[in-house]
Design brief:
Number of helices of chain A: 9
Helix content of chain B: 40-55%
Structural class of chain B: alpha/beta
Strand content of chain B: 15-25%
Largest sheet of chain A: 5 strands, parallel
Distance between the termini of chain B: 54 Å
Order of helices and strands of chain B: HEHHHEHHEHEHEEEHEHEEEHEHH
Shape of chain B: globular
Strand content of chain A: 5-15%
Order of helices and strands of chain A: HHHHEHEHEHEHEH
Shape of chain A: globular
Oligomer: heterodimer
Number of helices of chain B: 13
Largest sheet of chain B: 8 strands, parallel
Chain lengths: 232, 334
């Protein structure tokens, strides 16, 4: 670090190099560098939406792939998400101001009886990193909380998490209630948590089981694309 | 000498217990309820849980105190009852063990705080040490022979507990959960754990793996430990298969026969303390004990033999040895 010759001046990089450098800095969780790079791109009159999608979201997608493949682990992803967040803090008000398109909105929470939240928090962070808006209900949510929140927040996606084999069946209660109210098909329902598997996801009537946070992001994108196609 | 070290000196292998949570849920514990509250509210059910392990041939059983740190009890508004709940957990265990008619180790279970350490999360090292020390002291006061740290993911947390137990001068055992592509959630490999444990001043009596994914993955982890030549007893407590959703209930698909095979394979792979984790019921323990007693020591199973007997691995590699990850091309960096 003390070797000045190798010091990198972000502002001296052209746009393409700078964006590539941002992928690296996100990967390494370097929040200050991301902060600086976002400001540089804004100064170069990039649209906030382009900075979000072309630099930050793409960078986090790479992080997500290596997390999915067992190359990066939770500590690295937390660092990367922290760096992303710093960039997002600058962009968020500008995105609202410019009326940038939204990727989708997710309501997420750990089910009733379950107080574990590390996995759920990771998914929330990665979803935000991918450009989704996330409303986090926290832990121990009864069915009413989920239903109220998806209606009130006009969510596209409901995400439910459980770490315990004893709490995972509660996901079915939530989905059954949605069916009773005739609103099941208005939402994409994704489920996840250490003891779950694909078979379970199908058995309870969810749209998909997501093995980890990276898969959750990819699955959410896929379902949102389908939803848009249906509307078109 | 503590009872566990004594038994290890006298025996080639020892059998630990099975699941605490699964067994308590079968006795009527509701999801979301803190099992530790039952140490005071339903002591007979906790005695029965311990007695089941003793009756099934366990040499060691873990107390009902997994979520007994202030950080976990806080989620049930019971953070002020750490001493009371842990003391009871161990005292009930002492009662059962002393009546067993043979030496049985009461191991004071200490689980993760559930918090992420600084700088990534809010938990400081000092806070973690305090919490582990508070819980450990109560378990010892209640009569635990050893402290038993389990299901840890972060090296920082393992070390914080080691420091707390050193302050208490307590003999201890510590296992981690390898559930993510062969590593812990925080990315530690089996050989990485051996390095870490050997670097700890207050070394545990034994170290190892519990929970994780299925029995196959756990076996691979144990073989990873053995390959790193730790020179100390290895603990294996694997889940009874994989949870399946059957008629509205969760059922672990590992049969007693399968767990018997697992027990023998894991012993042949180098484990000296062998037990089960989630889904492991008394009938599994009986089958494990019988298989261990009736099967002579043999060579460690190959990956193919593990897969054939217990099912496939959850990931291609366990992260040890040469890295298979493609090297990322880096741009210039300071």
């Amino acid at each position: 670090m003390s070797d000045e010759e190798e010091d990198l001046i972000l502002d001296e990089l052209d746009d393409e190099e700078l964006v590539l450098q941002m992928y690296d800095d996100l990967y390494d969780g370097m929040a200050d560098e991301i902060d600086e790079a976002v400001r540089i791109l804004l100064k170069r009159e990039w649209q906030p939406y382009d900075i979000l999608t072309k630099a930050l979201v793409e960078g986090m997608r790479i992080v997500g792939i290596d997390f999915r493949d067992g190359i990066l682990f939770v500590p690295e992803v937390l660092l990367a998400a922290g760096a992303m967040k710093k960039g997002m803090a600058i962009l968020k008000p500008l995105l609202i101001e410019t009326g940038a398109p939204q990727l989708g909105k997710m309501v997420i929470g750990t089910v009733k009886g379950d107080i574990h939240d590390i996995g759920k928090n990771l998914v929330a962070m990665m979803m935000e990193g991918a450009g989704f808006e996330v409303f986090d209900l926290g832990i121990n949510n009864p069915v009413e909380d989920y239903i109220d929140a998806i209606k009130r927040e006009k969510a596209d996606i409901l995400g439910m998490s459980a770490l315990l084999t004893t709490t995972m069946p509660y996901m079915k209660i939530v989905i059954d209630t949605m069916v009773e109210q005739g609103i099941r098909d208005d939402y994409i329902v994704l489920v996840g948590g250490a003891p779950l598997n694909e078979e379970f996801g199908k058995a309870i009537g969810s749209d998909a089981y997501c093995r980890d946070a990276a898969v959750a992001v990819e699955t959410a994108k896929e379902f949102m694309a389908r939803k848009h196609n249906q509307r078109a | 000498m503590d009872l566990l070290s004594k038994l290890l000196a006298e025996n080639d292998w020892l059998m630990a217990d099975g699941a605490t949570g699964t067994n308590l849920f079968n006795r009527g514990l509701e999801a979301g309820e803190a099992p530790e509250l039952w140490n005071v509210d339903q002591p007979d059910k906790i005695r029965a849980l311990y007695q089941d392990s003793v009756n099934s041939g366990s040499d060691i059983f873990l107390t009902n105190s997994f979520g007994g740190t202030a950080a976990r009890l806080k989620l049930h508004n019971a953070q002020d009852r750490v001493r009371e709940l842990n003391l009871r957990a161990a005292a009930l265990g002492r009662e059962v063990a002393d009546k067993a008619g043979r030496p049985v180790v009461v191991a004071g279970s200490v689980g993760p705080t559930g918090e992420i350490f600084e700088p990534l999360g809010p938990l400081s090292h000092a806070e973690a040490v305090d919490m582990f020390q508070e819980q450990g002291a109560a378990l010892l006061e209640g009569g635990a022979d050893v402290l038993w740290l389990e299901t840890i993911s972060a090296p920082e947390e393992y070390k914080a507990a080691a420091e707390a137990f050193a302050n208490l001068k307590a003999p201890w055992v510590g296992t981690m959960s390898f559930d993510t592509a062969g590593r812990t959630m925080m990315g530690l490999t089996s050989s990485g754990m051996v390095d870490m444990v050997q670097g700890i001043e207050n070394r545990p009596i034994g170290f190892g793996a519990n929970c994780g994914v299925g029995a196959s993955d756990l076996l691979r982890t144990i073989q990873g430990f053995a390959a790193a030549k730790p020179g100390m007893p290895i603990v294996a407590k694997g889940n009874a298969g994989i949870p399946k959703f059957v008629h509205g209930h969760i059922h672990y698909d590992g049969t007693p026969e399968l767990m018997g095979q697992y027990a023998v394979m894991v012993r042949n792979s180098g484990a000296r303390i062998i037990g089960g984790c989630c889904g492991t019921m008394p009938e599994h323990l009986l089958a494990m004990r019988a298989a261990l007693e009736n099967t002579p020591m043999g060579p460690a199973p190959t990956d193919e033999e593990i897969v054939a007997a217990l099912g496939g691995f959850s990931s291609d590699s366990d992260g040890t040895g040469a890295t298979t990850a493609p090297a990322r091309t880096r741009r210039r960096r300071k």
